[in-house]
Design a protein that fits this description.
The structure holds two protein chains of two kinds. By secondary structure, chain A is mostly helical. Chain A has ten helices and no strands. Chain A has a domain at 43-77 and 86-210. Chain A has helices spanning 2-23, 33-38, 40-43, 48-56, 58-78, 92-115, 123-139, 143-147, 150-175, 186-208. Chain A is globular, with a radius of gyration of 22 Å. Chain B is mainly alpha-helical. Chain B is built from three helices and no strands. The relative contact order of chain B is 0.10. The model of chain B has no long low-confidence stretch (mean pLDDT 88). The chains are: A mainly alpha, B mainly alpha. The A-B interface holds A 49, 82, 84-85, 112, 120-122, 124-125, 128-129, 131-132, 135, 205, 208-209, 211, 224 and B 51-52, 54-56, 59-60, 63-64, 67-68, 71-72, 74-75, 78.
């Protein structure tokens, strides 16, 4: 009981410290806001968030896409995937819902990618929608259909990092700076990177739900069998 | 004034949901609280005028993480059931 009180006191102290920190923040932005907004017309996009993510700090985003790839590689190395709890072939309502929802999700993902240049949106948000679409497909009992395209899936998973790295190499050749886009072409480079990243992010997030690497011979068995050992 | 009340309620519900997602005895209800928490935090981000973060929080933080935790829960219960043998219902 005393430990609970201790935790409570510590939490309150933490809460007070955070509150004090927020209260003592300067009212006017003092950081790089002005500088980044001033350079916005040269970045190739009009949405400041996308400009920071893909232009000013493109290197960070490259590493983020790499982290996602590492995550799926780690999950695939740990275990084979299982079917989600149950196949839902016997739920016609869900199937007809999927028929309507899936095209809308794919369209919305593409829209978010496109609008990211001008307004809130971008590859991560669109990719998350795409991932959600894949999760829905798996919940609908169609995981086998998705996972049949094994090689295509693997290619899609690494596409983001490969295209991003290729853009790094090309921009280094063109301008001598890593991810330093030639003047006036920023928008095109950003769209190329984001399109590839969208595919990889969507596939990664969706396939993480499967919880392991796809494995042809295991897909036929509905129930987990402990017989196979690594 | 209305917005202040809204923000106050939002903060209150966020704290309550955070507490419940940590402390609810029924793990399933805790997970649902967590998903609702993510959605409300997305609303909070909108109120802070950060719609980019709100989109990411709603899609990744609430939607996909929620789906992942739910499937982990199903697997956990299946394993528990296999370990305890004949029990049909997952223990509450």
């Amino acid at each position: 009981m005393t430990s609970r009180v201790m935790v409570g006191v510590l939490s309150l102290a933490m809460c007070a410290a955070l509150g004090w920190a927020v209260q003592s923040l300067p009212v006017r932005p003092t950081g790089l806001t002005g500088a980044s907004l001033a350079k916005l017309p040269e970045s190739g996009v009009t949405n400041p968030v996308t400009a920071v993510l893909l232009n000013y700090r493109g290197y960070d985003t490259l590493l983020e896409v790499g982290v996602l790839l590492l995550a799926i590689v780690a999950v695939w190395s740990l275990r084979r995937g299982e079917w989600p709890a149950s196949d839902l072939h016997d739920r016609p309502l869900l199937m007809s819902l999927l028929r309507v929802v899936l095209p809308v999700l794919v369209l919305a993902a593409g829209y978010l990618l496109w609008i990211g240049a001008f307004a809130p949106g971008g590859a991560f948000q669109g990719g998350a929608l795409l991932g959600g679409a894949i999760v829905l497909v798996m919940l609908g009992g169609l995981a086998r259909r998705v996972l049949a395209y094994d090689r295509l899936l693997r290619a899609g998973l690494v596409l983001g990092v490969i295209v991003f790295a290729a853009v790094c190499a090309v921009t280094m050749l063109l301008t001598g700076g890593l991810l330093q886009f030639p003047a006036g072409t920023g928008g095109t480079w950003i769209m190329v990177i984001e399109s590839a990243a969208l595919v990889s992010i969507g596939l990664t997030l969706g396939l993480l739900y499967f919880g392991g690497r796809p494995n042809g011979d295991r897909l036929d068995s509905e129930h987990r069998r402990p017989a196979h050992h690594a | 004034m209305m917005l202040q009340i809204f923000d106050g309620l939002l903060l209150l519900v966020i704290v309550v949901l955070a507490w419940r997602s940590l402390n609810d005895r029924d793990v399933f209800r805790a997970v649902i609280s967590f998903i609702a928490l993510g959605l409300l935090i997305a609303v909070a981000w909108v109120r802070l005028r950060a719609p980019d973060v709100a989109l990411a929080e709603a899609a990744v933080g609430s939607g996909l993480t929620g789906a992942l935790i739910l499937s982990a829960l199903v697997r956990m219960r299946r394993r528990e059931r296999a370990a305890t043998g004949t029990r049909r219902e997952a223990p509450k």
